[in-house]
Design goal:
alpha/beta, 12 strands, single chain, five-stranded mixed β-sheet, 380 residues, elongated, five-stranded parallel β-sheet, Rossmann fold
């Protein structure tokens, strides 16, 4: 929320009260210039800084509200052709919310209550203009408070929706990972283990056969050894898919290099990589997070970008880690960035925010999509 400055004072019931801004933009809906002048005089007396505009016709009202953008409207209740309540109803119809104060010579208590019930912020009797400065302050503060609550509620609703989608995405990711592991176990290990079982069965037959010789045994053991090597290779490949050995053995930079090569091999999208010149070691938590951020970014490129090439730039300077990913694909639209259904973006943003970082995404200048991430290293 914009920081509020307090510099001007207003007199209210013998006490001083700070105004919550440098000046007000006040729109008078008033056909009597003398009444408007009296109100302005009262505001000047109370040291209220303002600029004002006066209109008295319906045809000018909505356009003036849009162009002048008043902080408050002071409307004469008794205009003959277009009175204050008609103006207020027109604002409501246009879904335009501006603090609205009715000004009138005489107003019954019943009518005043009806106006307040309709949503008018306050009413001022022309015999009591002394109350005008305080009424403006209160009306504006009330509307700003309502707007702040509305924005907070909207953000809260959006956050709840994103959390629900993230939890759903998390569950889907777990199921997808289980399916992938099951498929790899079946396709890779299952077939090789079946072959090993056949090899052992053949060896057993040969051991009981009359043609049994040391040479045939050596040949069968060689076949079995090759099959066992395939099993070990499959296990290593499945394990690397879950967590690369290079992440623990060689560090995050080499793990990202491995990830880039694997991505290029799987997706046929050319991947160029630029890594920091120094061998700065990141702690385990940050290393895993950075690796996963790069991994998820590349996954989004493969799924959505229709790119032929992707470039990854990683750099560390001034205790900050910088990551930039550029692709030459179709480019992301603003609606996709703002959408609570863009789970890939939401997931990336959440990972970065957990590290007190900044996440930016948009269209690249030369086309395609650009992801830019900054993560502080001091806190990590």
């Amino acid at each position: 929320m914009k920081e509020i400055e307090t510099s001007e004072m207003v007199i209210e019931m013998g006490k001083t009260r700070t105004l919550p801004r440098d000046f007000y933009r006040i729109l008078f809906l008033e056909d009597n210039p003398d009444d408007a002048e009296l109100m302005e005089h009262e505001l000047h007396e109370a040291k209220v800084q303002f600029i004002s505009k006066r209109i008295d016709k319906k045809k000018d009202f909505i356009d003036t509200v849009a162009s002048f953008q008043p902080d408050v409207i002071l409307a004469d209740y008794s205009l003959s052709m277009f009175n204050g309540m008609q103006a207020f109803q027109l604002l409501k119809k246009e879904n335009t919310y501006v603090p609205f104060i009715l000004v009138t010579g005489v107003l019954s208590e019943k009518l005043a209550l009806e106006c307040l019930k309709e949503g008018v912020d306050d009413f001022i009797l022309k015999s009591s203009f002394k109350r005008l400065p305080a009424a403006i302050v209160n009306a504006v503060k009330k509307r700003e408070s309502e707007e702040e609550k509305r924005l907070i509620a909207a953000e809260l609703k959006k956050s709840h929706e994103e959390l629900r989608l993230l939890l759903n995405r998390h569950q889907i990711s777990i199921e997808e990972e289980r399916i992938n592991i099951a498929r790899d176990l079946h396709d890779e290990l299952g077939q090789v283990l079946t072959a090993l079982k056949i090899d052992i069965s053949l060896l057993r037959k040969k051991l009981t056969s009359k043609e049994f010789t040391s040479k045939t045994i050596d040949e069968e053991f060689a076949v079995i050894n090759r099959t066992v090597d395939k099993i070990a290779s499959s296990v290593k490949e499945i394990s690397s898919g879950l967590r690369p050995d290079s992440l623990d053995d060689l560090g995050v930079w080499e793990a990202i290099r491995w990830q880039a090569k694997e991505f290029e091999k799987r997706s046929s999208i050319k991947c160029t990589l630029s890594l920091p010149d120094d061998d700065l070691a990141l702690d385990e938590k940050l290393s895993i997070a950075v690796f996963r951020i790069v991994q998820e970014t590349l996954t989004n490129v493969a799924r959505h970008s229709q790119a032929r090439m992707v470039e990854i730039y990683l750099d560390v300077r001034e205790n900050m880690l910088f990551l930039e990913v550029l692709d030459d694909g179709v480019g992301i639209e603003d609606e996709q960035i703002r959408s609570s259904k863009s789970l890939g973006i939401i997931g990336l943003r959440e990972r970065v925010q957990l590290l007190d970082g900044r996440f930016m995404i948009g269209k690249a200048r030369r086309g395609g999509t650009k992801v830019f991430i900054i993560i502080p290293l001091k806190q990590n």
